[in-house]
């Protein structure tokens, strides 16, 4: 199989030499900025609303433009990087992200801020798949790559979790634009470092790039994510504003898949989905985010509106989750090697479900020890699951398709997050609203308004005042906790379904028989005579992609000393 490193680039970083860990630092800082920008704005919304006075629709686009555009363009820029060079796309993303950050920080009107958020989404879509696909090229040895992916996923968790804390600090001490301004000095440093240190890599460039297919994928993902987000904020599923983008997006994605199957040089080789490990890994990412992202938003409301914590205190309460995720990422490589992808992802799901069920014990009063234990188990279990799924997915993809595979993984993450907000938000609303009917002394119109959200219920209760207001306040608080418990149980069920899905993953971590010379001893547990186990190096495997279970490079070997399959079979032990 052809190497993905362009001739003439720096051999040490490209081939896995000493510079590869420096390259990983640059890639992780890139990802940190993108992950921070996804959540850092949330606590700045009241401040920028008072300053710019956007309409409700404009405010919605200020918040949603970045994740919507980023999700829509991941496949486009991931596959473009495979064609023209991932480093080139990444560096362009750096420049655009920095310029858009300056525009957002200095915006004098909502229209300018929305445009800046769109550009930030474009820059984020250029950066995210490029970081993962360059990581795939720089770390050809699966064991080292597993360590690198563990660090990469931990950084993503840190960025998303610390965004509200950092945003709250900046808004409290400066102004809302400072949440964007912090990107500029970091980009000013990382852009020249990226040009100096990052190796160029690309996939096969056979045939023309499918521009029409890339646009179909972008508009299709945008329609699906937009429809899901509308459903998640309370829009009726059959309402035209929700149903139309969902149907259009789904239709375009189906046409995109058909087009890719028929083209001789597709953007994404759909034969990847014939590999059970790849398809299962993508499904596990979707299901993990489906179960947990909506739950995270509800948990933030619980901490602030039920327990009465400030935004900064809420962020600090979530720090144990972040530290646990970092620990899971740091130990993920050794865990994966020791117990294999199937048990790592499956038990990660089970641990996360157990943490979610433990949090059912939360009530209307603060229980900090319970919350801390639950968040630690939640962070460790979730990060273990995502680590195993991402590593298996990326290792199943051939090096020349790394950009497309990374884009599929990131798109799955975004789709799962959007569907989780919609699904768990709907479950929460269905369990919360009935408790506000027939509250003594509260008019029907006030009860209906209070059923929209807990924050709205508190506002209506303050307006009513007296015994009726106090009764509505208590009923809303009680109903929210009841709804939270129902949502936790539903989330745990989804996570346990993910544990069953993980049974289709390989039982042991496998390693390619072909490695660069400086990685010859990387897989210490492998038999010394590779040909005796897997047949002659370079022997073609059966099937269009080297067999359904075959690895991305040549034959594959189990890390454990188990009975080998017949020589030349090229199939992994599962």
Automatic annotation (TrEMBL):
Residues 519-531 have a biased composition (Basic and acidic residues). Residues 23-510 form the Major facilitator superfamily (MFS) profile domain. Residues 519-574 are annotated as: Disordered. Keywords: Antibiotic resistance, Cell membrane, Membrane, Transmembrane, Transmembrane helix, Transport. It is found in: Cell membrane. The keyword Transmembrane helix applies. It comes from the Bacteria. It is a multi-pass membrane protein. Its main location: membrane. InterPro entries: MFS (IPR011701), MFS_dom (IPR020846), MFS_trans_sf (IPR036259). The keyword Amino-acid biosynthesis does not apply. SUPFAM superfamilies: MFS general substrate transporter (SSF103473). Coiled coil: none annotated. Pfam families: MFS_1 (PF07690). The chain crosses the membrane at residues 21-45, 57-77, 89-108, 114-135, 147-169, 175-198, 210-231, 237-257, 278-303, 315-332, 344-363, 369-390, 411-432, 482-503. PANTHER family: MAJOR FACILITATOR SUPERFAMILY MULTIDRUG TRANSPORTER MFSC, METHYL VIOLOGEN RESISTANCE PROTEIN SMVA. This is MFS transporter. It comes from Streptomyces solicathayae.
